[in-house]
Amino acid sequence: MLKRKIIQKLEEWKKEPIRKALIVEGPQHIGKTFILRSFAYDNYKQVVYINFNQFPYMKHIFEQDFDIDALILQITLMIPGARCVPSETILLLEEMEYCPTAMKALVKLSNDARYDAIGTRTILNSQNNPSEVIVLRMHALDFEEFLWANNVSSLAIQELKNAFIQQRAVSKEVHQFFIDMFRVYTYVGGMPKAVRAYTNSHDFEAVQLAQRYINDVYLSEIMAWTDQKKKARIADIFHSIPEQVKRGNKKFRYSEISSSASYRTHWDSVLKLYEYGWLFTIFKVDNLDMPLLDNHQKGNFKLCVRDIGLLAGQCEDSDLEYLNEPLTIQKNILLENSVADALVKRGLRMYYMEEGKNMFFVVTNKDRKIGISFDDSSALRYMNRLVFHGQLDCAYDLIVEPTVKDKNGIHIPLYNLMFVE
Prior knowledge:
The protein has helices at 6-15, 32-43, 59-62, 68-78, 102-112, 143-149, 154-165, 172-188, 192-201, 204-224, 228-246, 263-275, 308-314, 335-344, 377-388, and strands at residues 21-25, 46-51, 89-94, 116-121, 133-137, 279-285, 296-305, 349-355, 358-365, 368-374, 394-399, 404-406, 409-413. By secondary structure, it is an alpha/beta fold. The strands form 2 sheets. It has an 8-stranded mixed sheet. Strands 2-3-4-1-5 form a 5-stranded parallel sheet, sandwiched between helices. 40% of the residues are buried. It is globular. Helix 11 (228-246) crosses helix 12 (263-275). The protein is built from 15 helices and 13 strands.
């Protein structure tokens, strides 16, 4: 079983004396079902599992305006062997996008408080969630979870974190091990199927087969929920991203899809790919006044695939030849996406700024703003001027060498991204 950080969040939720219902949202194939079923059977005497995609006839129950007692009665009648005992039972309602009215049942279960309930959905929806439920976003494995999957001890990771906090370098051997692991993560990514393919055999062909299978499933699932007029545009964007990454585009260019493509014609398709968890956007901002979202430029953004392994799976073998060489900042066509992957999976928001020739990420965590550049001392100097003037809280320059502090600021190795917050 892959160790996942969301388990700790679920355990903390279980300890609350009065628990609201949960919704765990995240794209397909990231391990939601496995994690939630494992958690449920480890912590409850009775587990009632309903998947609205696999068992569409169950939707009828949730489309009725039942009170909780009537709802529970209907469930026990429809599911052979189901038992619902107050304080001992959890209801798992999977793929709620197939039964939107199940949200009303979650609200009633929250208010009733006799039965715990967790719903899941594949379509990301950060708006219009009732206050009676708590929403947790789940991702594929982040870099730290990938290290756990490869039997790297938590003690070794903690020693690495201590060095990061103290702004000191680790030994040459430790550094080389972790920078090599980050290079592998850049190719494998964090989709459980791909991670298991790697940990079971260290066979990159098996990893690539897993990645391509998942990409095919994503695209076919998104197409199934899309009207005919938009399908071609979604496919265009889906296939355009790796090509634009390969060419080193600084931002996403509609013109490389077709001469007639624009923000107006294709933005809805970008949103569709976002809602299904396949990509995310990094908008350019004009200034660092909070909230940064108010300062973004709608037409200037980078598109990143939500899991770096799925982007690697779309690339040709010749595009990934650098994986057989020492990791570098300049030659790695996947680096920008892998950095974004490592940060976004930890719940951080990302933007980017340009000032002259300087380009850098701005990462936000609540009220904190952190600048991140790519092996660029000039950008680091500029970011530290922003730190001096109180516009950033701190700044780091990413390198492949061990940590070093010089007149320009702090340069940290890529693997330390798992501690930036």
